[in-house]
Each structure stands twice: as C-alpha cells, then as structure tokens.
Amino acid sequence: MKAEIITIGDEILLGQIVDTNSAWLGQQLFDLQIHVQQITSITDSESHILQALTAAQSRADVIICTGGLGPTKDDVTKATVAKFFNTTFVHNEEVMVHVKQIFERFNRTMPAMNYGQADVLANAEVLFNDWGTAPGMWVEHEGKVFIFLPGVPFEMKNLMTHRVIPKLKNFYSEEKLVLRYILTVGIGESHLAEMIADIEDSFPDQVHLAYLPKIGMVRLRLTVSGKDVEQLNLLADELQEQLIERIGKAVVSTEDISFEEVLIKSFVADNCALATAESCTGGNIARVITEVAGASEMFEGGIVSYSNQVKVSQLGVSESTLEAFGAVSEETAVEMAKGAKERLGTSYAVATTGIAGPGGGSQEKPVGTVWIAVAGKQEVQTKLFRFHGDRQINIERATAQALLMLWNLYRQEKGD
Amino acid sequence: MKAEIITIGDEILLGQIVDTNSAWLGQQLFDLQIHVQQITSITDSESHILQALTAAQSRADVIICTGGLGPTKDDVTKATVAKFFNTTFVHNEEVMVHVKQIFERFNRTMPAMNYGQADVLANAEVLFNDWGTAPGMWVEHEGKVFIFLPGVPFEMKNLMTHRVIPKLKNFYSEEKLVLRYILTVGIGESHLAEMIADIEDSFPDQVHLAYLPKIGMVRLRLTVSGKDVEQLNLLADELQEQLIERIGKAVVSTEDISFEEVLIKSFVADNCALATAESCTGGNIARVITEVAGASEMFEGGIVSYSNQVKVSQLGVSESTLEAFGAVSEETAVEMAKGAKERLGTSYAVATTGIAGPGGGSQEKPVGTVWIAVAGKQEVQTKLFRFHGDRQINIERATAQALLMLWNLYRQEKGD
C-alpha cells in the first residue's frame, strides 16, 4: 500500500516552521504497512495544488493533505480542492456548534472568519475535531482515499490517532500486521547488522527488519505481515526471541518507548532516584528526563551550575579543584556529581562540564571537550569526550552520552 | 526567482528523521529573493528520482537536492543522477585526500565504501566540504542550476553558507535585496497587522512585509528589492522607522536574532545576572538560555526543583507554604524565585511551578495550570496560566511566557 503526503501553505516553504507532521505520519503509516513514497510541500496556488493532487493520485493509494484549510487561509485552497473533486462545499451545523462552543469556553468572541470552518467538502465524511476548530475530512475518489487534516501538530495527531487510523485499518483489512521492537544501546548500526546478519538473512519474505538509529543506540523494528494474526504473533515472538538472545546485554527494552522512558521506568522499579549537575549541557539533561510523564517518580531535581560560583555554592565543588584543574576537568565533574547526589539526597547523579562552543576553546581544551561523571550507589565513573559539532549538537551529544553512562553504571551496580 | 528542494532517501519518508534542512534552506533562499515553490521528499528509486528532477526542472530556476549521495547509499541514486544529466562520475583526487585526512585525524581506518566519496559528477563544479566527507556539487544544466548537498544538517548548512550562497548571489545579480527586521513582543499577529495596516497598504510594489509569529511574539521582515542598493537601503530604513514609531514599546530588536539573544545581550549590557528555579519546565528555561552562545556572561545557573524536598533544601521554600498552598501556587512560585535570586546571587530570577500533564491534574488545578514568578531588583511579579496543550506544548508555552515576564519586568525596572 502506497501513500503520499501533501502539505499546502507557505509556512513550510518559507522556513517559518519545520515540518514535524510528515515524519510522524510516516511512522504511523509504516506501522499500518502503508509506505510513504513522497512528501510534497507546495504553495497555495491553484495550478500547484491541482498538479500535486493529480500526481499523487496517479502514484499512491492514500493521499494525506495537511494544512491549507484553516480559517485565515486564502479561499483559493478550499475552492481548488473542491474543483479537483468536481464537488462543492456544504455547511455542517455540528461543526459550527462545536466551533462556537470552543470560543465560548475561552470567553472570546468568535471572529467572523470562523464561520467558514463549518464548510466541508460535499463528498467528504467529516472527521470531527475534538481538539480544535478545523474539522478533518475523508474523501474516497476514483478508488483512492484522500484525507484532509489541519496542520496544527497537536490536532493533526489526535485526528490521526482517533479518527483516521481506525478507519484506515478497516479500509485495508486483508493484510494484518504485527510489530515487535528491540531497543539496543552501545552497539553501532553496522556492527549490530553484522551481529545478526545470518538471522536476518533467514527471515521469510513476510518479515521486515528496520534499523532506527539515534546517538548511542539503535532501535530494531520487526514487521510481520500476513492473514492470521495468531500465527503472525507466534512468528514475531519467535524471531524477536532469536534476536534478543543474539544481541544479549545490549538489549534495553522490547517496548516501543524511548530510552529515557526505559531509564525512568527502571529507576522507579528499583526505587532509585536521580539528580543532575549540569554545566555545558545547561539544563538539557533535566529537560529530556522531565519531558517524560512520570519522571517525578525518580527525578529529584538538578543544579545548572553555569558559573564557577554556583559550582562551589550549590554543589560544593572546592575552589582549589577549580583553580588547579579548571572547570572543564575530570576532578570538577566528579565533585559536581558527588555534590548533586549528596545535596539532593539521591542514589544516582550525573554531571557534565565542557566547552559547547563556538567560543571558549583552547589548544589544550578545544571546543567540544566535555567531561562527564556519573555517581552511583558504590562508585563514580568518568569519561572524556571530544565532540565535533556546533554548539547545539555538542549539547545534544553530551546529553545522550551522559544518559548512556548513567544507564551503564546502573546496570553494572544492579549486577546485570 | 523560483527554487525547489528535493530530498532523496527513506529516512524522512519513514519518519526516522524530521526534515529540518528544508525550512532552513527556505529561509536562506528567501533572503536572496529566491522563493521555494515546492519541497519534494522521495525514495531512492530510479523512476522516482528521474520524475522529481524532471518536474522540478520544468518549474524552478534553482533545484537543491539534499541527501542520497553519502557513502552508504545505494549506487542507484548516483547512477540515476548521472543518467539524468547524461553524464558520468569522475574521480576527484583533492576530495580523496581530504576524506583520507578526516579518517586519519580520528585515528580510524577508512572503510572501503568511502573511496566512492571522491567520485563526483563529471559536469559538476565541486563544492569542497571542509565539515565532512561528502562533497557538494554545483551543476548548470539547460539554463537551470542544480545543487547537490549532503543531508547532514551541520555539513549542509556550512556548505550553503560558505560555498553556495556566495555563488548564488553572483549568479542572480540583476536584482538586489535589502532586508530589515523588527522583533515585537506582547502583540498578537492580527492585532499587529491592524495596527500597521495603513503603513503596509502604502508600501510600493518592491516592498514585501512578512509576519513571522512565535509564542508571544511576532517578527516582521521587510524585504525591499530593486537595482540600486543605496536607494534600497534608504527606503528600507525609512519604512522600518515608520513601523517602529507606530508599534512603539512592543519593539524589542531590529536585528535578526532570537528573543533569547535580545534578552541575553540586554542583560549583559546592563550588567544584570539571571538565575532560574524550575519545577514544571524541568530545566527547559535554562536550556533555551544556554543554547545561545555567550549566555554565560549573564546566566549564573539554576535549580530544577522537581521534588518538594529540593524546593525546600535548595531554594529555601518553606514547608508551611507548601503545606498551606501546595507546590503549584503563587506563594511557592514567589519563594522559589526569591530563593534562586538570593542563593545564586543574581539581580533577576524566574520561577515556574505547574502541572504539565498528562497526569497530576485536579478539578481545582487542572493539567496546564502554571504559576510563574519573576523576581527583579525591586519587585516580584506573578501570573497564573492555564495552558491547553499536551505535556511538551505546556512546557514550551510556560518557558516562553516566563521569559516574556522576565523581559517585561526588566524593561519596567529599567524605566523603559
């Protein structure tokens, strides 16, 4: 099954927003065995819209259009889409009532332009939008499915999850899919591929293995397709088990959750608590931890000790250490981690100190030099990194490596 | 002048990565008065690549292709691109030496697949890549310009900035462009548009005004095009001055920099220092501040006080306050801000405490309830917010509002 995504409107083309919707849609559709073949972002000119819809229809089975139908948009878009289907727009009173209620809820008068929100394509099934004002639409046309969704990510995702995906599953019902995940850390993608090459080679045609790499980790996604779900589950379990056995300790989780979620769940289950002491990562480690719902069950808090003074006053780093070795040193990192662990009363702490750039580097300690220390129940481990990215990339890499070091120490102390 | 962007490869279509490159390219090209008309992401099948290149050539003057030419990619891509131009690949020894040096620098043996990096299109001018291994290429073909760049954002951006943009400027030299920026805070996009409607209506055709909104702020970008740069500058200055006068105090900056950069520069210039005390934002305020190079000149550090215990021990929030009013309360926010300011010895501090969700809400304090306090040289200001997004959006909004409150107090105390 093939899909294409079309985004209409200037925001993406002008670079005013980054298109995060398409990647998310790509993942969701893949899990339904619907493969996105093309993503097209276009301006809202009539000829361009007609051209894109026609081309997508000729290649794909499912066409998802996001954006371009909100209240402030040019009428061109709506009129053009209606023209493409050789249909018109009709007023939907249920949508109108809903839009009015939303404005009432926020005690705001509804600008007149919002009346148009209730105009839906005459040939569409309305996908009711509980999360915003613009409704989604489902159109079946010449054997293809066209789905129109608002561009606001929060609304688009909820409409997909609650309205579109259940319908798509029904619509393409012959082929069933089951998925299995294996999250691995500490093995590079190509090394992992070598490690399991013979297993992968032995997979039957109905099985597909995808490698999804991130800094320091690779997620494997096993897709098994066929008719009989029970049989598919048996096969998927068996293959997953083979892979897990081969990969061994590097397997971190078999759930489709992030590494941070695995870390948090494990800490909670073992009653461990975490504190952070961040210099060069500037709060980013705390952020990625607290971005996960439920982090409060294991994360006590952290100190962003950007200045030396704060390293001393809030973490108890000794002034003589700073003088003798500098802020970017193994000694300072160790004292930061120990200080955070002690002062925040946790079983684990992680500390970073380095030069994120672009300024502040020296010959001895160039930009990208980062010391990371993790303090556990029994010991403190340290590591020196030399990253080669720009400021943002260096911060991201240091954050990822800090969490990996934390994980490794935790596993080691647990005796795994 | 019209441009299209083509990204080749499965990573974006499968949703394994978000395409941040295209938005950045869209901005850069816009500043050269080159308007991106379409962004196309495709798989690396021969027919798909040929179709996309042909279609783009028929519509655009400049076609930028990113990704698809790295060492691990299928040879299909390279062969197809050569076929499209009816050319072949030639070995470039300068590139080869450079690639070898990069591996030597990291003390790593060069995998054989990297020899292919030195194979460049025979009809291309090589855009030397000082930031990675894969070279960029510039091809002039049937009156159009094709630019091939690696997909790694860091490499792509450097190649664009240092190799491509200077060449594009020369290539399309008839029309000159001058740009002016006005960053405003605290006025909504539509309100701002009303405020300056008559000025905007009076603009001559050669002037374009773009509204670039973010949470709590709108950036105006004024583009003036024509032949005589001196005259264009005079006109741009005059129009910018008119707008600034009308908008008044909401104008924050006339430079093309982020709001965080404006805040940091202003604090540095006035010798002010900042501390953060974060509960629900979990380190995100510290992160957005420290993401800016030079933040260390005004940011002392912060406390992420996720647990009540840390609010007490590290910020001096009183236990009786927590008991009487709860962690999510005006009283706690005030004590957090005061505590951070005092303990970290700064002139300003900002504090957040709230319920980011999805759990933790109650009827009285639903998910999205956030108290923010800012402490300045003379006073403390507080504000209650009720956000309606998911966890991530609530954190982002709270972060943006906290910085806006900080800015307003700073300006007020400065007597602006």
Strand content of chain A: 25-35%
Using a beta-carbon cutoff below 8 angstroms, give the protein chain pair with the largest interface and the number of residues from each chain: A-B, 74 and 75 residues
CATH topology of the largest domain in chain A: Molybdenum Cofactor Biosythetic Enzyme, Chain A
Give the overall pLDDT of chain A as a whole number.
91
> CATH H-level name of the largest domain in chain A... which superfamily?
MoaB/Mog-like domain
Protein name (chains A, B): CinA-like protein
Organism (chains A, B): Sphingobacterium tenebrionis
InterPro entries (chains A, B): CinA, CinA-like_C, CinA_C, CinA_KH, Competence-induced_CinA, MoaB/Mog-like_dom_sf, MoaB/Mog_dom
Family (chains A, B): Belongs to the CinA family.
